Amino acid sequence: MFDRFNRRIHYLRISVTDRCNLRCTYCMPEEGITLIPHSQILSFEEIAEITRVAVKMGFDKVRITGGEPLVRKGIVELVRMLTEIEGITDFGMTTNGTLLKLFAQPLYDAGLKRINVSLDTLNPERYRAITRVGTLSDVLQGLQEAKRVGFNPIKLNCVVDKNSKEFDALEVKAFAQANGYVPRFIPKMNLEEGVFGEVEGGDGGNCSICNRIRLTANGIIKPCLFSDIGYNVRELGIEKAIELAIKNKPASGLVNSTGKFYNIGG
Q1: Which of 164, 156, 160 is closest to 114 using CA atoms?
Q2: Is 100:139 a contact under the CB 8 Å cutoff?
Q3: Which of 4, 180, 197, 242 could form a disulfide with 187 if both were Cys (CB 3.0 to 4.6 A apart)?
């Protein structure tokens, strides 16, 4: 499907939860958040049906995000359900990697083959400061396990203040090159102020070629991360919500005063 700016929209990002086991300074307040009630969270069956409808409408790229998707109970079963949908040619997940040592093999066996892991620094103290509660070794062990079981590509998402020339980013880049991972550098964003930039090593942040819409964990289809617009699949129906999101997708990101990274997916 094409939007009014002749961009082909074929990429669905699915936030399966707003919950996370970290408290990264640029994503979530230290005291935590007001969580979406479990009763409002989409079931796996609903997510699978939304994905099936999207694929019938021309979507062929799907990514699972969060929050942290690996804290969603039964996530491996959802992966299995989605991999069984014919027509998806690119299926991935973005995770903070802290639970990947436990989940890499089951996820791979369920059909997931591509994964992005958040890694902003290789300094254990800096990692703890950024995540507030995280342990760097958990992520490094998770990456080793993902590589062992066969994930390819394994991309590293590194958030930077300005660019990839910063010390932490250079260390992440060297680590990636030494281990066969693919580094991506994401400028620090601010939803309420409309601050974002293009991802180095990816196409995120380049509004002129944006090809995605987003599904929140409680069933809102959002045409843009930096927009307050959203359409409820339960109220409107799946196809109508997707059609409206594509029809009203803005030319470029502006601001988002109602959503957060942890409940939309970055």
Answers
A1: 156
A2: yes
A3: 197
Backbone angles phi, psi at 50, to 5 degrees: -60, -40
The burial of 191, by beta-carbon neighbours within 10 Å (0-12 exposed, 13-18 middle, 19 or more buried), is given as buried
What residue spans define the domains of the chain? Answer: 11-264
Q: From residue 180, how far is each of 90, 109, 153, 162 by CA, in Å?
A: 20, 21, 9, 25
Euclidean distance between CA atoms 228 and 156, whole angstroms:
28
Per-residue tens of pLDDT for the chain, all 266 residues? 999 999 999 999 999 999 999 999 998 887 877 899 999 999 999 999 999 999 999 999 999 999 999 999 999 999 999 999 999 999 999 999 999 999 999 999 999 999 999 999 999 999 999 999 999 999 999 999 999 999 999 999 999 998 999 999 999 999 999 999 999 999 999 888 988 899 999 889 999 999 999 999 999 999 999 999 999 999 999 999 999 999 999 999 999 988 778 778 76
Long-range interactions of 172-176: CB distance < 8 A, separation 24+: 172/119, 172/120, 172/121, 172/122, 175/119, 175/122
Helices (H), 35-191: 44-56, 75-83, 100-110, 124-131, 136-149, 167-179
Residue with tokens 């992966």: 79
Distance CA 68, CA 16 (A): 8
Q: 11-264 sits in which CATH class?
A: alpha beta
- Considering all CA atoms of the chain, what is the largest pairwise distance in Å, rounded to the nearest integer? 49
The tokens 């949908």 sit on which residue? 85
Which two tokens mark 2? 């094409």
Whole-angstrom CA distances from 90 to 12, 13, 226 are: 10, 11, 24
